[in-house]
Amino acid sequence: METIGSKSPPAGLIAGTPDGFAAAKAAGARIVMVTAYDTWSARLLADSPVDCILVGDSAMMVVHGEKDTLGATPELMAMHTRAVSRGAPGKFIVADMPFLAARKGETHALECAAMLLRSGAHAVKIEGAQGHTHVVRHLVESGIPVMGHLGLTPQWVRGLGGFKVQARDAAGAGQLREDASALEQAGVFALVLECIPQGLAREVTAMLRIPTIGIGAGAGCDGQVLVLHDMLGLNPGFKARFARTFADGAALVRGGAARFAEAVRGGEFPSEGEGF
Ligand code: KIV
Q1: Poorest-pLDDT segment among 12-21, 71-80, 220-229, 247-256
Q2: What's the CA gap between 159 and 26, in Å, rounded?
Q3: 153 lines ligand 1 (CB under 6 A)
Q4: What is d(CA 83, CA 94) in angstroms, rounded to the nearest whole number?
Q5: H/E element, 134
Q6: Which residues pair with 108 in a beta bridge?
Q7: What is the per-residue pLDDT across 83-135, written as a single tens digit (0 to 9) for each?
Q8: Which of 37, 53, 99, 192 has the most ligand 1 atoms within 8 A of CB, as the residue to mutate?
Q9: Does the active-site annotation cover 203?
């Protein structure tokens, strides 16, 4: 039997439509998602083989320097989404519905999602399930593709008592299975599983028809997502077990700044040819 990830996704399998996510799962092709918040990084990702870009509310932490994501607003998410969409018009873009945007009723959620789609998102991501699956269903029935997000849902950080691995006990695991099924029934096209035990993530992935995209949830998911700054080593000081660094971006930035300063102080920059 073929294992998940044994094939590369055919080019363009995901781009443009949520159906591509189901097709990827059916083909056993792993989905690759990375966050972005601005035009320059989106431009670089546009030429990369990642399948889709998440404009995450993690922007509050990695871009704006806050300690959690609660400060994100619909307007701020729309601004970041517009910037990303200008940089990567050909990529499938998912934008996070910010803190409480799905908890103030269907109309509020619809207006927020509309703002994000008008800003260039192809879909929105909503954290959690209990108490707002009807909102998810309403958005889906209104033609708005919705990605779910369970496990460690950072917008619940106060209630969870911190950024902690979730669903470790039988009750938590049972609730997560129930929430995952409820979201699938409400019509989400994919589900992010964040910081849950690997065995549970594998089980939920096998249970669902829609693909799961893991972060800190092991290799048994249908895809993986990383925060851009973690992937590129641009978040010095942050170390999480699941966040592998794939490039030494911090060294690149510090090295470039040091070479610039040295060239200026040494009178070597700008040269004749770099002036008018
Ligand atoms: O905001 C974000 O970046 C996210 C990912 C960690 C899944 O939700």
Answers
A1: 12-21
A2: 36
A3: no
A4: 13
A5: helix 133-141
A6: none
A7: 999 999 999 999 999 999 999 999 999 999 999 999 999 999 999 999 999 99
A8: 192
A9: no
